[in-house]
Design brief:
By secondary structure, the chain is mainly alpha-helical. The chain contains 3 helices and 2 strands.
C-alpha cells in the first residue's frame, strides 16, 4: 500500500519543513500556498506576514546569537510571494 504524500508544513520552533527538512516555506509549500490563495493574494501576504512575525520571535528565542537576519526572513516568508503578485 502506498502512503499518501506528507504535507509540507512547518516544524516549529525550528521552521523547517516536516516533509523534506528544508527551511519552510519550501518549494512544495510555496506552490501549495499559491494554489490555495490563487484568488486571494492579499490574504496570502497577510497570512505569511503573521507567520514571519511568529518565526522571527521563535527563531530568535531558539538561537539568539546566530539566527537568520531580518532580510533573510523577509525573503524567505514574503519576498517570493510579493514578486509573484500581479501588477
Amino acid at each position: 500500500m502506498v502512503s499518501p504524500p506528507r504535507p509540507h508544513l512547518p516544524l516549529r520552533p525550528l521552521w523547517l519543513c516536516r516533509a523534506c527538512g528544508t527551511p519552510w516555506p519550501c518549494a512544495p509549500a510555496r506552490l501549495a500556498l499559491l494554489r490555495e490563495y490563487a484568488h486571494g493574494r492579499v490574504a496570502l501576504l497577510v497570512y505569511l506576514g503573521g507567520l514571519l512575525h511568529d518565526a522571527a520571535g521563535e527563531l530568535h528565542r531558539f538561537n539568539p546569537h546566530d539566527g537568520p537576519e531580518p532580510q533573510q526572513l523577509f525573503a524567505r516568508f514574503l519576498g517570493w510571494a510579493v514578486s509573484r503578485c500581479p501588477s
